Amino acid sequence: MIRVVFFVSVSVLATHTLGCDPPKIENGRIECNSDEDTCLVTCDFAYITSDKIEFYCDDPGLKAVQCVRPMTILIGGESALFDALDDVELISTKAQLRDRKIAMFPYGIVAPMVFWTDGVLMACGGRRPEGRAKSYEKSCWIYEPCENEWKQTIALTQPRSNGVGVVDFRGKPLVYGGMNENETTMTSELWNTTSPEIYWIQGPVLEERKMGHCGLSAKGGQKALLTGGYPTYLSQETFDMSSEAHDYVLNLIHKRWYHACGSYHGLLGEHFIVAGGLNEHLLAIDTVEIWNPLLHYWTEGPSLPESRSCGGMTILDGFPTILAGKSFLPQTSAMRLNVLEDMWDYWDFELKTGRNYPGLASIPETLFDRCLT
């Protein structure tokens, strides 16, 4: 069964509106465009929209949408024996959510790109071991929470794994770089939203080939930030996700790939973090760098309690948190950054399964509230 996820493009929002009367919401805001009768939901840091980001003014869902705390979903990954995993795990500070059983992914998958996009959880690409060879995927799947099953949707234009997936301020997904049939690529893809038919199309070309890099959505979804990765390990690129304009910013301090990255809001504004990863000699590292938003350069941050690579970063209860990955073997501990004390410590829970290269995304804690059971 194929389900198409539909996105609608919007122009820059007006401060005051004539055609829309947006409701007020806690932990966020709703802004509307009077020319197109559309509204966008923007949640505060450490919160996520419970549904879509973009609504028409007369959509009943606009009055029901909330900004809620996120939990994190881990999809697939690679075991210590290099097997592709097909299990899916919920990560939350709430035990009842961590214990919820999620349907297995349709097949074992390593390094897929996962999004919470327009009220839908979607996983695309990744690689599947076939003996000593690797098969690269371009299929995309969406998760139906009330049916607890995965359904296939529109595929990427080309097979791709170990890339970066981000979502812009309109809820539109984009993927950058990665591996394509054993070749590092400099291509990107985004959803076409300019015609009634929805499909992936070619996006902006990267300045260099990238894999094992880390990316995040910055400036409220206005920019995509890509850091490190093979083959340069240090370079950093930004893309304006409205105009597709490209820019370079200062290089990282340490060479790294297969690292984790994220952001938090401090006294100086939005800070970006890169943590751990592998160096150019394939050794796991524990160094951390934090982007100073006023001086516009990377500074040394507090080192990790242990070296960690091939995992990912998320936000749990407001704390930047590193999940999965390995020091030498896959780890089940979860490390969090205490920004006020400028140090890392561990959460009091562990993952059920150690895994490297999982797909990871933040999703709303209320995902299952719409279901009857």
Describe this structure in words.
The structure is a single chain. The protein is mostly beta strands and 373 residues long. Among the domains are: 1-68, Complement Module, domain 1, CATH 2.10.70; 252-349, no CATH class. It is 2% helix and 41% strand. The chain has 2 helices and 30 strands. The strands form 9 sheets. It has a 4-stranded antiparallel beta sheet, with no helix packed on it. It has a 4-stranded antiparallel beta sheet with strand order 14-15-16-17, with no helix packed on it. Strands 18-19-20-21 form a 4-stranded antiparallel beta sheet, with no helix packed on it. Strand 26 (312-316) and strand 27 form a beta hairpin. The longest helix is centred in the N-terminal third of the chain and has 4 residues, at 61-64. The chain is globular. Residues 1-18 have low confidence and may be disordered. Keywords: Kelch repeat, Signal. InterPro entries: Gal_Oxase/kelch_b-propeller, Kelch-typ_b-propeller, Kelch_1. Residues 1-19 form the signal peptide.
Any chance you could write out the topology, listing elements then pairs?
Layout: E1 28-33, E2 38-43, E3 48-49, E4 54-56, H1 61-64, E5 67-68, E6 70-75, E7 88-91, H2 95-98, E8 113-117, E9 120-124, E10 127-130, E11 133-136, E12 140-144, E13 149-153, E14 164-167, E15 173-180, E16 183-192, E17 199-202, E18 214-218, E19 223-227, E20 236-240, E21 246-248, E22 260-266, E23 269-275, E24 288-292, E25 297-300, E26 312-316, E27 319-323, E28 333-338, E29 343-350, E30 359-364
Antiparallel strand pairs: 1-2, 2-4, 3-5, 6-7, 6-30, 8-9, 9-12, 10-11, 12-13, 14-15, 15-16, 16-17, 18-19, 19-20, 20-21, 22-23, 23-24, 24-25, 26-27, 27-28, 28-29
